[in-house]
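ok so i was messing around last nite and threw this chain in just to see what happens. nothing serious, just curious
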Amino acid sequence: MGSKLLIKNIGFWLAILICFKPKIFLCSNEDTKSNHWWKNLRVTGENNPGFTIMDPNDTGINFENKLPLEKSLSNQVYLNGSGVALGDVNNDGLCDIYLCSLDGANHLYLNLGGWVFKEAAKEYGIECLGDDSTGASFADLDGDGDLDLIVNGVNSATKLFRNDGNNFNQAPLHDDKYAISGGTTIALADIDSNGLLDIYVTHYRDSTLMDMPNTEFKFRNLDGRKEIYSVNGIVVKGSKFENRFRINSKGGIEENGLPDLVYYNTGDLNFVKTVVNGERFQDSRGIPLKRPLYEWGLAAMFRDINRDGRPDLYVCNDFDTEDRLWLNVGNGRFREAPSYSLRKSSMFSMGVDFADINRDSLDDFAILDMLNRDRMVRKNQMPPRLTYQATPGKYLDRPQYMRNTLFLNRGANVFSEIAFLSGVEASDWSWCPIFFDVDLDGYEDLLITNGVERNARHLDTIIQLKKQRESNKMSNRDILLARKVFPSQSTSNVVFRNLGNLNFLDNSIDWGFNLKGITHGMACGDLDGDGDLDLVANNLNSKASIYRNETTEPRLMVKLKGPKKNSHGIGARIEVVHNQFTQSQEMIGGGRYLSSDDYSRVFAMSKGNAKLTVTWPDLTRSIINVKPNRVYSIDYQDDRSEKSGKKTMQLPMFSLLRAEGVTPHKENLKESTQPLLPRGLYEAGPGIACGDLDKDGWDDLAISNGRGGAVSLYRNLKGRGLGSFKDTISSINSRDGLSLLISEGHLIQCFSNLEDGLAFGDMVTVNKLGKDIVQRIKAVAESAGHMSMADVDCDGDLDLFIAGRSIANHYPKPVDCWVYINENGKFVQNDSWSKAFKKIGVATSAVFAPINSDSKPDLILACEWGSPKVFINTGVSFKEETKPYGLDKYTGLWIGVDVGDFNADGLVDFVMTNRGLNSSYKASNERPLVIYHGDINDDGVWDIIETEYGEGNTLYPRRNASTFAEAMPWITERFNNYADYSTMNISELFGSSLLDEMNRLEVTKLESTVFLQKNNRFIPKNLPIEAQFSSAFSPVVADFDNDGAQDIAISQNQFNLNLEESRDDAGLGVILIGAGNGEFNSLGIAESGFVIPGEGRAAAVMDFNHDGLMDIIVSQNGNLPRLFKNQNKRRGLRVTLKSTEGNINGVGASMRLLYKDEPTHIGAKHIVRMGSGYLSQNTTTQIIGDSETAVGLIVTWPNGNEEGSDSELFTFDSRQLEVIAEKGKGVRWTKPNGVH
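result:
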């Protein structure tokens, strides 16, 4: 022990003497406390964040991972590359490097200090000749303070080398049963909490079916089931082919990967071995796995995701074998995370890394795949064999997509996938991700290695080789060697800078991380002792890259001295807190793609002194105050606090009510006759209406249904639950039911004819509860959708607005909307009132509200492929005033709309939902989203050409050639191959004359947005980022926390999109709490309790149990609705209006609270509306918060002016919980000067 200490001290002083890097160096002073020691770092020089690649002639690192051509052609497994392991193998205080080789000796480079290294693999006995090594990891497995070594190989089972302080000796790891070659990444953690590090090894294969041309399979039927009997004459059972192949659902042959292995450490380098099977692994229901998982494992990483002190595990699997998120349930056992935790995954998952990317103290993670950033390369890339097709109501499946995925932790083991929003969905053929704070700004950036020796998904080459095999008789060797024509994809590595707002920006060139080549494994460690992390990358057929970190920002390096047998504290969580800003990392063992880091973590310290907390795996904590530019080593053995007690959980705002007897929405699988639609049109419903059907004073519930179903009517059992109405049988729909309204005991239903396209039958029906239909409005060519009601002509009764959605087979051709005037109880279409809505667009939603200074009902209309539209009621017609209100330039894919007074200025504002920012679609004023539409071939079906930008601002076809060819077979005559297609812009592909004949639409804005009214214009303000995670449908405005500021609830998600698009499922619904000044804050799901996992559609509010709190009901397409009970402790004032017959509930009225002794202190405006959001109707009863100090309620009845006789003041006692305001029973109120 004494000799080791001497070596360490000599190494430390040697580094000081010979390291002349000017920016930083270790000072000689150090301090030792009871549980830690630290050393100073002095930072000098200019700050140029980024990297410099060190010259091999200077470092002495000349390693090159050479792969002979014929070797790689005969076995494609080699193209997965090799990795690197970093660590201090000789305990001299300097980080050493171990590089794996696919065709020769592995190299160990001992760090001599000053960026000089000496190769010593043979001397230390760890060359691993002939193993064709893939992955490696250093870890102290026997707890003696030395780093032992684990190595995987294509042709070798996992090997373990014990470090005895002077060299390595191979230790027995497994018997023949578990001697499985083809191992890839090694991950380490104390799985079973016995204080010893266990090992998880992912396995791929040592060869694949792709390398076995002309393989002969023979089959047999066993009990009516077809199975593989022999392979190349070898009987499968009991042979090397057992469990290797299977027959898929279409009768094709699928190859299985190998099961991963787990090594449970029992001490002194003895291990209990097991494959991943039912012995220690359970499915998400807690049922032991029935058989081992034969999957294509490439990488795995441990991380305590749920913060229970037990390491959880994420496993990346190639091809269509699912990735696995295993939650550690104790005693060395794992249960797969619930299906709703992850709603999608990458398909060809390569590597994984974790980080808290938005500093909310929750661990997020990234998975890499192989989507190229260059659109020309993408258009010549074979798409995945399996594509996701949405099934109505199904959301617990987990579709896979060929792109990177980034999972944002929303709490409660639920993640939202946001790679498109963050801009990291594509990084080329990628392997190893590392979250790493390059510029030390406190946010971890994302570094990615790229490149592949042969792009085997290159479509033109695949076709060329297929033709070659069909035209020539080729030997098996010839077939293998012919693959050399696949192009090399030698692409740049990439680093995405974390901007701190969930957005990342490619900063590769500026930071010197753009080396072109083929790089696989990568790891980080402090190679020069300056307190920041450097990088080592293993390149194929070129020399390894050594990256010196040039950042000079203040930093903090943390090392751990863990429990006795976990000397580096693997699994401990490290948090550095500056006021409210928290950085957190975990000490990991292995887990990089084929690689492992040195055991040190670095944090940004530009904010000055901080508090450092280490939470050890047993949940005890070490807490110290730290200063910038120091290296701290924290010792587990000394001065730890006890385990932190469980935090008192505050009740979420909403709880999910499980109402008995509620039935799911019926949706049917429908095949679109417009194959190039961006999204499905048929899955629009269901709608929701809240209103008093039986006139018992309690709001009931109506939910529309699809074709073959019937409208669902639920009676409110006075707040105790939902029941059925007696003697009421709803008729079966012959079409999809969409919007619903409940008005004075009448149920008004709207139906879509998009599916049948027939201009007869019902568009709208009106009936009373339990009685026959009293009015039918006949269908027209246009399909109807949303409905709203108001007293449009100011005659005292409610009129009806019907929004036209589309014409069957003609989306997005603009269509009409209609106004139906109430004439003696019958709705009659009125041309004068409808004229303004002729060919207005693709209308999705509408709401009436008094926008200008009078109280006549004006209309706000949401349209896809158009701007929000405003129509002012002149008394005899509607006049469009979209442009004067400043809205014409905000074209979007608008879906739902509701109104409020978000800054309490008495003016009507509105919120409108949109496509969001988390998709492949991008839009701005400078580069709008553009489509062309029209009937190209005169077949009566509208064609759609979606575009994307290529070089400059030139528009290219968005869709792949195969997608266009299926819809327009003639298009293939315009290009010779996929390479041709990839270079053709839309004018070259379709011809300028044809495009000139088509209609062009542009979208400049995709964010869901609040529009605040000021000086007779609407000013847009994007909603918080959580509202942009997915397609948003129904916004509903109410004061959920009763603080007087209006809040917003939003439903989200759409699954049936174009097959080239990823499922829109990152939304869980969102509650946005208003600040009263037009700003909003999103509640986390643990705070809100508001979760809609499926395809949220209509959303409406009502005070279900009359407790002065607004509850929420949300419908889901093809699934059960969700009713959320508001649990807030602060109740609001219930306000019910009684107006005149024909509009008894005062629809169109607005109301505001008047506060005590302050005649100009008036609360936000609340508007009674009937039909808003998206296919939704809220209760007409209003709940107004912050009423405790109010003395009166100002009601402005529809048809009047706030200065006129129709504004009344109703006084009430501050202890009063409910006000019934009857028209004519209040005191005339005149608005004071200075009040809107």
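not much to say yet. The radius of gyration is 33 Å.
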